[in-house]
Amino acid sequence: MNILRHPLLSPAPGTQRELVSLHYGRPGGQKAYVQASLHGDELPGMLVAHHLRLQLDALEAAGQISGEIVLVPMANPIGISQFVLHAHLGRFELTTGENFNRHYPDQIDAVAAAVEPQLGNDAKANVSILRRALKAAVEAAPIDTELQSQRRQLMALSCDADIVLDLHCDAQALMHLYTETPCWPDCEPLARFLGSRLTLLAQDSGDNPFDEACSQVWWKWAKHFGGRFPIPQACLSVTVELRGATDVTHELASADAKNIIDFLRWRGLIAGDKPVVPEAVGDARPLAGSMPIKSPVAGVLTFVREVGAEVGAGEVLAHVIDPITAQVTELKSPVDGLFFARDFLRFANAGMRVAKVAGREALRTGKLLGA
């Protein structure tokens, strides 16, 4: 295993942060990229990365890694260091207010124009040409800030991968996944290996999050060239929501790491007998059918249903209680669906999103992700 250190742009004299990437196997075959805690205060992924490292070290020592595997065990050195009054704030950069998982740069049109004369009827050759050009464009992109340098480095490490896994978590939640609709055929076995109850699908959900920045180039290039050249969906990129923020245990993390290893072995990046794909325990639903539950008032928040429940439209999920007037406001599900995530805060502000229910029909439009 090779350890590479990638200095970020220094934000001030006397300060310097860096990204650290761990490299297993060798380039030339399939490539998998796994990163943890792009939101710096979402810690289950870091523990999964720790267990992945232990398992990958053993597999490398046994000569079983047949592809290239890149592991970034802490993808956000900026966010991991942001504390305000002892509260860890790792979702938004404090300087700009920007979400660390949004606004990844788009090189699609520039790369398409640069490589069009080189493309032909060989899909595999087209993939290689496009990957080389994309990596060069990402590495040459100008940067002005530390945050931009972090985004550029993460993209440079991942943009030429066949598989990209971005390890996150929700507040209190079931294991669930986000991926683009064109990726679902390749994602479905991963969902089975991970035991995911739900995969949320969208095609361009808005604001260019990291996972979509890696996968959308392929379907957008296919659309750009209008079928004149064969261009497959050459990257499976998935946001893996590792349950809730406090689900940080060795038991869960070691099992999740083993399931990722089994998937990589099934895909051929690790030698040995292919594992049997497990039975599905969940399904795929449109991200536009994932309905946020908002509180119209402020007060003490208490849930009356647990995550994992199948709920009906109009069913009460939580109460918001005004401690002065004793008024109780019921928060109800707007659709039939899976109650898959809720906040861990127990005081709601007016307008606060406190839970999510995944329905089966696409009802929302516009930007589909939260802040």
From TrEMBL:
Alphabetically list the UniProt keywords: Hydrolase, Metal-binding, Zinc
Q: List cofactor names only.
A: Zn(2+)
Locate the Succinylglutamate desuccinylase/Aspartoacylase catalytic domain: which residues? 29-265
Record's keyword annotation contains Ion transport: no
Protein's UniProt name: Deacylase
Q: Which Pfam families match?
A: AstE_AspA_cat
Q: Which domain of life is it from?
A: Bacteria
**InterPro entries per record:** AstE_AspA_cat, N-alpha-Ac-DABA_deacetylase
Indicate yes or no for the key word Metal-binding. yes
